[in-house]
Specification:
The complex is a heterodimer of chains A (117) and B (114). Chain A has no helices and twelve strands. In chain A, the strands form three sheets. In chain A, strands 2, 5, 6, 10, 11 and 12 form a six-stranded mixed sheet that branches. Chain B is mostly beta strands and 114 residues long. The chains are: A mainly beta (117), B mainly beta (114). At the A-B interface, strand 5, strand 6 and strand 11 of A face strand 4, strand 5, strand 9 and strand 10 of B.
């Protein structure tokens, strides 16, 4: 079964510092990959996604992620953290099984990002 | 366009009662997914529905849980005889296409079982 591992349940950075949130997946066939952000008591908002093509994808709010097939990774980065980035971040995969894929998302455990002034 | 709507936002039920959670997908979306987020855990897939059809229910508990998406009206997630372990946030997401595609999430329904 496919799984998603997010290293570090809590990450703390200073405002203006680099943000790096790690995500690894287990799959023999590279799935589609997503990063979502969840603010307290709200639903999930899509930050970015990788399906095919360029392996470096840019998302909203200055975030980007790079798909590395050899490392089965899809780490999320932002050059300079802002206080408003404090939230929970979820990496997710959508398995591709040819014509039978249903689009369900498999989520990692989430990483809470704290931004210190 | 309105986003994905879920109601109620908060629901309190006593053990043994029934809970009904509603989800109205985005306009033009006919694919609905339900996920459950238990405290301190990530989201877990429950069920995927299209209009009048359950496509994938591999994540649904075998008993007490059911889902529907009728031709008219919202999708309903129904939990019968709730237990304390059902306390969680339940999120609905919709998509315009079948298959691996981005999903748009609602604000969730937070169910508390007392």
């Amino acid at each position: 079964a496919q799984s998603v591992t997010q290293l570090g349940s809590h990450v703390s950075v200073s405002e203006g510092a680099l943000v790096l949130l790690r995500c690894n997946y287990s799959s023999s066939v590279p799935p589609y990959l997503f990063w979502y952000v969840q603010y307290p008591n709200q639903g999930l908002q899509l930050l970015l996604k990788y399906t095919t093509g360029a392996t470096l994808v840019k998302g909203i709010n200055g975030f980007e992620a790079e798909f590395k097939k050899s490392e089965t990774s899809f780490h999320l980065t932002k050059p300079s953290a802002h206080m408003s980035d404090a939230a929970e971040y979820f990496c997710a995969v959508s398995p591709i099984h040819g014509s039978s894929n249903t689009g369900k998302l498999i989520f990692g455990q989430g990483t809470t990002l704290q931004v210190k002034p | 366009n309105a986003g994905v709507m879920q109601n109620p936002r908060h629901l309190v039920r006593r053990r043994g009662q029934e809970a009904r959670l509603r989800c109205s997908p985005m306009k033009g979306h006919s694919h609905v997914y339900w996920y459950r987020q238990l405290p301190e855990e990530g989201l877990k897939f429950m069920v995927y529905l299209q209009k009048e059809n359950i496509i994938d229910e591999s994540g649904m508990p075998k008993e007490r849980f059911s889902a529907e998406f009728p031709k008219e009206g919202p999708s309903i997630l129904r939990i019968q005889q709730v237990v304390r372990g059902d306390s969680a946030a339940y999120f609905c997401a919709s998509s315009p296409h079948q298959g691996a595609y981005e999903q748009y999430f609602g604000p969730g329904t937070r169910l508390t079982v007392t």
